[in-house]
Amino acid sequence: MPPASATAITTSSRLREARTLITALVAALLLGLLAAAPAHAALPAWPLLQKGATGNNVASLQFLLRQHGGVVTANAEFDAQTRSAVITFQQNQGLAADGIVGPATWSKLVISVAPGSTQADAVRALQFQLRKHGYRDVATDGVFGPTTTAAVEGYKARHQLTGGTTVGATTWQHLLGSPPGSGPQGTYAFIIPREDVFDGRESLLWAHHDYPASDIAVEIGTPAYAVTGGTARLNGGLDDSCGLGVAIDGDDGVSYQYCHLDSRDVSHGARVTAGQPIARTGNTGNSTGPHLHFGIFRQGVSVCPQQMLIALYDGLVPPSPWTLPESGCTY
């Protein structure tokens, strides 16, 4: 029979081995769980709004202020009345009262809403965001009904957001911070409102008539968005075959051409971001009817835009423009 001291040493050694084994098993389990967790795209930044801003983000801001008791007219213009309402809200929330709406103010302003919500002004704020992202059939009536629900489901699916049909802080940040029509990555955006593609989704797959490009039938005056970030370059002209044109020399090293425009909303050399309005579509130049001619040039060579356009229309991450084919322009 071993002495008591030897037995104690053996028991202590076995306990250390057991603890080591348990620690290793727990570590392996945690690593497995982390590896299995789905990756999520980074949140877009909250927009920065101040006096002089206009658009749907401002309209949503005004309706959220009203939901919090603010006295403000929802006119989509960040005017003196809106600035005063922002300052009052910031003071009530203990924030820096500078009249500028940034991350701290947005995080206090947004209100969680879901189907059947009775907070009508907060729902209107949501509906203006959904319309900004192309859901034109959503009425700004303050009713979170079937149409608004379907739009929320579609938007959250495209952006890989969880939480069912509830619109919480994360979804609000996506809606407000993402450019119109953007996919989950936010680097590229579809080039017009989805609902304004006259011949429907399948028309985006049609080959151009004689060289790599895409002609999209669309009514005159439809907003055209920057497909990606870069530098705007005005080209063409009323007597040019392109008509009024805008090119974007993308930060990705590829150039994107828009032709037959009715008007241009950016200046030559201006910096643009994905989803930013840059023009209104038209029928200028060598055109047989209202449409948007869209071309992609890689090191001066035309490549087929169809794969990129259909992915962006569907809210998916598009293929790299450096992989697009130079011929056979169908999906």
UniProtKB/TrEMBL annotation:
Ranges of residues in domain M23ase beta-sheet core: 214-304
GO MF entry, a single one: metalloendopeptidase activity
SUPFAM superfamilies named among the record's database cross-references: Duplicated hybrid motif, PGBD-like
Segment forming the signal sequence: none
InterPro entries: Cell_wall_metabolism_enzyme, Dup_hybrid_motif, M23ase_b-sheet_dom, Peptidoglycan-bd-like, PGBD-like_sf, PGBDSf
Domain Peptidoglycan binding-like: 54-109, 120-175
Listed name of the protein: Uncharacterized protein
Species lineage: Bacteria, Bacillati, Actinomycetota, Actinomycetes, Kitasatosporales
